[in-house]
TrEMBL record:
GO molecular function: methyltransferase activity; RNA binding
Protein's UniProt keywords contain Transferase: yes
Source organism per UniProt: Pedobacter cryophilus
Main location: cytoplasm
PROSITE patterns in the record: PUA (PS50890)
InterPro entries: PUA, PUA-like_sf, PUA_sf, RlmI-like_PUA, SAM-dep_methyl-trfase, SAM-dependent_MTases_sf
Protein name as catalogued: Class I SAM-dependent rRNA methyltransferase
Length: 394
């Protein structure tokens, strides 16, 4: 096995169990490891630190797996880690919920692997060369653990390019998922499109937040922006919203949402879907003096990295300013960010700026986070990405 020697003083993060070793921390590479090869990482004084897989194409040169010298992260190690991750989701899956994230990459000690369960099908994202090398083992073990009818590859993320990998998509094992797979989450039914849908096909990370927010919807007029397949919309209708207007720029999202309204037997007269750019539609609502009791803003990732933070902050501020301007006085704003580069304190500051620009007063009633199938590993704070605020706006 090839060996990576770290520069003096660069072992601290490894000793603290952070799973990334950056290329700038490398003193020497002994051998000629290929991308994805297992390597031993040692300190400047030859002390063993960890095992990980190497990638010379990435800024993250080594992704660490095992800190025990006698516990090589080979096939059996991977199988045990997969077993542990799936077992940890047993409390989530039930008669009312058959969709969740089974494996959450570094946060489940399996860098570069994301696996989502949607009913009888799995959606997989393999984002690093090390995980790519273990693909046969991953597929075999996940099929054994879940009994899935089919496993579909959604590894089209830009993250693969950082590891020198091409985007891939297609059937990996078993049956091709149908155009619309029916799943349940907290008793709400969804038709989701794994093959053509965004990311892995659905956003399980808002499961708890949908339920919390729905408890405020009874008798309210709700605006759901970036509605996608309708998670917040459907929960609001289930919990007695007077009406819901859903806005998304994607035709497929609107089509899927309309199917989900029918699937759950909701009164279509209480619901309308608009295919439009959200910022444009919010400005139109303002011009038309349309007002809502609850406004939900769940945009895509505006800050994929810290270098995009300033631009993202301006985008979040403008979006939230517009959202506040279409709220009734004393109405509720539920606003989210899925950008890991934006921490909660920064997000609160952005909302404060938006409130100032809108001439509004804001109270924070609740702070939203990510659910237990998206755990936050204490030695990997980068895994904490989803945050949100429920605000009363005056």
């Amino acid at each position: 096995m090839d060996t990576i020697i770290l520069k003096k003083g660069k072992e601290k993060a490894v000793l603290q169990r952070h799973p990334w070793v950056f290329s700038g921390a490398l003193q020497q590479v002994k051998g000629k490891p290929k991308n994805g090869d297992l390597v031993k990482v040692i300190a400047f004084d030859d002390e063993f630190l960890a095992y990980g897989y190497f990638n010379g194409s990435s800024r993250v040169a080594v992704r660490l797996l095992s800190w025990e010298e006698d516990n090589l992260p080979e096939e059996l190690w991977w199988r045990k880690r997969l077993q542990a991750a799936v077992a940890a989701r047993a409390t989530i899956l039930s008669e009312d919920t058959n969709a969740c994230r089974l494996v959450f990459s570094e946060s489940d000690y399996l860098p570069g692997l994301i696996a989502d369960k949607y009913g009888d099908y799995l959606s997989l994202q393999i984002l690093t060369s090390g995980a790519e090398n273990m693909k046969p083992v991953i597929l075999d073990e996940l099929q054994k653990l879940t009994g899935a009818k089919g496993i579909f590859d959604k590894s089209d993320a830009s993250a693969r390019a950082h590891d020198g990998l091409e985007a891939t998509e297609g059937l990996l094992w078993g049956e091709l998922p149908p155009d619309f797979v029916e799943v349940k989450e907290n008793g709400v039914k969804y038709h989701i499109n794994i093959v053509e849908g965004q990311k892995s096909g659905f956003y399980c990370d808002q499961r708890d937040n949908r339920k919390i927010l729905a408890s405020y919807a009874k008798g309210k007029r709700v605006l759901d922006c970036f509605s996608y397949s309708g998670g917040f919309t459907l929960n609001a209708l289930l919990n007695g919203a007077t009406s819901v207007v859903s806005v998304d720029s994607s035709a497929l999202a609107i089509e899927t949402l309309n199917k989900n309204i029918v699937l759950n037997g909701f009164d279509s007269t209480q619901f309308s879907a608009i295919q439009s750019d959200v910022n444009k539609q919010l400005r139109l609502f303002k011009e038309q003096e349309e007002k809502f009791d609850v406004v939900i803003l769940d945009p895509p990732k505006y800050a994929p990295s810290r270098s995009a933070l300033d631009r993202a902050a301006r985008a979040y501020k403008d979006l939230n300013r517009l959202g506040m301007l279409v709220l009734e006085k004393g109405g509720l704003l539920a606003t989210f960010s899925c950008s890991g580069a934006v921490d909660m304190e920064t997000f609160k500051q952005i909302i404060a700026w938006a409130a100032l620009d809108a001439g509004k007063e804001v109270q924070i009633l609740h702070q939203f986070s990510q659910p237990e199938d998206h755990p936050i590993r204490i030695s990997f704070p980068e895994g904490e990405y989803l945050k949100g605020l429920l605000c009363r706006v005056y």
